[in-house]
Design brief:
This protein is of the alpha/beta class. The site of 5-amino-5-deoxy-1-O-phosphono-D-mannitol has 16 residues, from helix 10 and helix 16.
């Protein structure tokens, strides 16, 4: 996830060390390029940027010597355009008298770049941050002042972003918030803005929080806030914050895992915008349609998302695909594959060795390689003919949550498009995710205590919820250290039923169309003294038969689409339940023992 920082000071001074420190404090968000610019009132903008880590780039380009009274810093997590010098931010306007940087995604970037080029502007990169600068330049060159130009640019820029810009010959900077984080900090003779608090806290604890659709104009001695839409001035006093740096990085949540669970509505929104505006989407869909055999290859959580994707493809598009855990692809399917076949390789990191080995064996057979990947610039992305960027930003917590969400959302979107269905209803998905998190969070405390003492349990699902049950079981294992087996609910009676004793917990994930079948399983457990915990929509049959019911809201999706949406939503209680039980058992959910975020070994 990109990060921005902007500062204006009373006197010209050495700003380099402040920029480097801000870079370090933004770096937990994840990034692949770093850039800084100082903007004198007269003279030339000093812009330095490159691929690499903050300290590396700062040392190589000597950020430490950068002087001035206005500066911008940006850390970029690549979405539009590969990580490179050209795509690194900040960006200059055509004639180099303005410089700006953003975080977030401008989803109409491709169209805007074409417009800017047609209007004679100098477009140097593929990056959407550059589009923000040209969107302002367009109106400044038509005679508008900066504030008016930014207000007009706000109407041209589609997506979720925060953006900072400055111009030669002035004493101020401007920033706008629309969907991405932006806060300001004020002190005597200094005003700054940043994507979030950690880079501001070393400078001041007087904070001004901004809302979407607001522009802040700031100079060394003060600031003004305006409504982007109406142009009206907004009065807002700074507030004193006491948060520690660590709490600030976690956005006020106790753990990164909880923060990332709560980021899911936003990342899903970002992803859907990106997929809707992806100029390569038609070609990607055609590639899926025309493949002889289609494989979905991944490990761990990414495999569970792929398994769900495979159910979506069959049911929504009549397209058979074979989901397979990456190393088994090599041993089982690769020998029979050829150039007519296509593999969708799914990986958060894009660096999992098991997945890369499978790609190698696919490539050796001449197969098509497609990627669904979070880390842009990763090996998987580079090896893919087409890729879907998951747009989740940096996932810090070892248990994957928001990346599972976006993998599932990506597959649902692809399946709908492949099957020729309308995708419009998906615009409500972020809201449904948000409502489900809120509803479920309130219910978990009544259930967690009944599961937490057990070192062994099951998590069962059927059809669309089978992959969700596997994912729930993995989450529970990963952070509670209890053994939890995920299984098809109908298989439970074929052996594992013998584990059931008094109070033994079995979780059932019940899709709305499978309630009767799930109820049979529930009764097989309860009649032997086991505890059946159901997850599903409010349903009198589940209420009457299960010991506990964690209710997910019945969403206003088209009736035929509700089971597909429900499957995605039903992972949320399992993420939250794992988090709470892990804590109850005394473990750190963010960094479970023995595990690593990226497994680059065989
Ligand atoms: O980066 P990847 O998606 O390829 O990683 C695959 C698995 O190692 C990963 O999903 C792992 O299972 C998660 N930590 C589970 O939460």
């Amino acid at each position: 996830m990109c990060g921005i920082f902007g500062i204006v000071t009373r006197e010209e001074q050495l700003l380099g060390p402040i920029l480097i420190e801000a870079g370090h404090r933004l770096s937990y968000r994840g990034y692949d390029t770093v850039g800084a610019a100082t903007i004198p009132q007269n003279g030339k903008i000093d812009l330095r940027k490159d691929v690499g880590k903050v300290q590396e780039v700062a040392d190589r380009l000597n950020f430490a010597e950068m002087r001035g009274d206005r500066a911008i810093l940006q850390l970029r997590w690549a979405t539009f355009g590969a990580p490179s010098y050209t795509n690194a931010q900040p960006h200059l306007d055509s004639d180099g008298d303005m410089v700006g940087a953003h975080n977030g995604n401008i989803v109409n970037n491709v169209e805007l770049r074409q417009q800017f080029m047609a209007e004679g502007m100098v477009v140097r990169s593929e990056n959407d941050g550059e589009s923000c600068v040209h969107a302002v330049e367009r109106y400044v060159h038509r005679g508008d002042d900066m504030l008016t130009a930014i207000r007009k640019a706000y109407h041209d820029l589609e997506g979720d972003y925060a953006f900072v810009i400055g111009r030669l010959g002035e004493d101020r900077l401007y920033a706008i918030k629309q969907g991405s984080g932006l806060v300001a900090g004020v002190a005597d003779g200094m005003t700054c803005i940043a994507s979030d608090l950690p880079s501001i806290l070393p400078l001041t604890r007087q904070i001004v929080r901004l809302n979407d659709g607001e522009i802040i104009v700031f100079w060394a001695e003060g600031y003004e806030i305006y409504h982007a839409e109406s142009g009206e001035r907004i009065e807002r006093e700074p507030e004193f914050v006491e948060e520690s740096m660590e709490v600030a990085q976690k956005g006020g949540y106790d753990h990164f895992m909880l923060k990332e669970i709560h980021e899911q509505p936003q990342v899903a929104r970002d992803l859907l915008h990106l997929m809707e505006s992806d100029p390569e989407m038609d070609a990607l869909i055609e590639r899926l349609r025309s493949a002889r055999n289609l494989y979905i290859v991944a490990c761990g959580t990414s495999y569970h998302a792929g398994l769900l994707g495979s159910v979506y493809f069959s049911r929504l598009a009549g397209r058979v695909s074979i989901p397979v855990i990456a190393p088994q692809f090599i041993a089982h399917y690769a020998p029979a594959c050829g150039p007519e076949d296509v593999g969708i390789f799914v990986s958060q990191s894009g660096e999992t060795k098991d997945v890369l080995n499978a790609i190698q064996s696919a490539e050796a057979r001449g197969m098509g390689v497609l990627g669904v990947v979070n880390v842009v610039g990763s090996t998987l992305m580079r090896e893919s003919e087409y890729h879907v960027p998951l747009a989740c930003g940096y996932e810090i917590s070892v248990p994957a949550t928001k990346t599972f969400m976006n993998q599932a959302v990506a597959f649902l979107y692809l399946a709908l498009r492949l099957g020729g269905h309308d995708t419009a209803f998906l615009e409500n998905l972020p809201r449904w995710i948000e409502e489900t998190i809120a509803a479920v969070e309130a219910q978990i405390p009544t259930v967690e205590g009944k599961i937490a003492p057990w070192d062994d349990l099951y998590c069962l699902g059927y059809g669309l919820t089978y992959p969700i049950a596997l994912e729930g079981a993995l989450k529970l294992k990963e952070i509670t250290y209890a053994h939890c087996e995920g299984m098809l609910s109908t298989e439970f009676k074929h052996g594992p039923l013998s584990a059931v004793v008094d109070g033994y917990p079995v979780i059932f994930v019940a899709g709305p169309e499978d309630v009767p079948l799930i109820i049979s399983g529930v009764n097989e457990v309860t009649c032997r003294g086991g505890r059946a915990i159901a997850i599903g929509e409010e349903d009198p049959r589940l209420r009457a038969n299960a010991d506990d019911l964690i209710v997910i809201p019945t969403v206003d999706a088209p009736e035929s689409m509700r089971p597909y949406v429900d499957a995605i939503l039903s992972v949320l209680p399992l993420q939250l339940l794992s988090y709470r039980i892990g804590l109850a058992r005394g473990y750190d959910p963010d960094f479970p023992r023995n595990l690593s975020k990226t497994l680059t070994v065989d």
